[in-house]
């Protein structure tokens, strides 16, 4: 269980590679990276948005497949090609007048480190690098791309009383 007051969480920020997709990427013959994503992560992400928990994608990745996947789940805040994630994170907080304490950030590797040191509740997959595990409030039992998104979103929605709470939960 996440050791944090999840009732105050207003947004969950996800890295993609190694968090919502596995650490390994197949390359198409064109050189485009092909990611595998988890269906249960997708269900939880779309439900969170419906009940008012903002989901944010903050990734260094730049392929349109990322945008299409998360736009299709209703995610409005998709930031791609982020070389320095703290800059984008600051702009996001300012845009919605949010504080660090209202944010869960889920990352797995060094490019996530600075944001994770600032957010209220840093979380990571089981196969995150050791530096990230050391600063995380919660290390999921799921590896990246294998349900870590569902794990964290479900805990937040349960804490807020939104898991299986109304008809929104039973459809896409």
TrEMBL record:
Record keywords, A-Z: Hydrolase, Magnesium, Metal-binding
Gene3D superfamilies: HAD superfamily/HAD-like
Signal peptide per UniProt: none
GO MF, one annotated term: hydrolase activity
Cofactor: Mg(2+)
Domain of life from the UniProt record: Bacteria
Pfam families: Hydrolase
Family note: Belongs to the KdsC family.
Subunit structure: Homotetramer.
Stated name of the protein: HAD-IIIA family hydrolase
Species of the source: Segatella sinensis
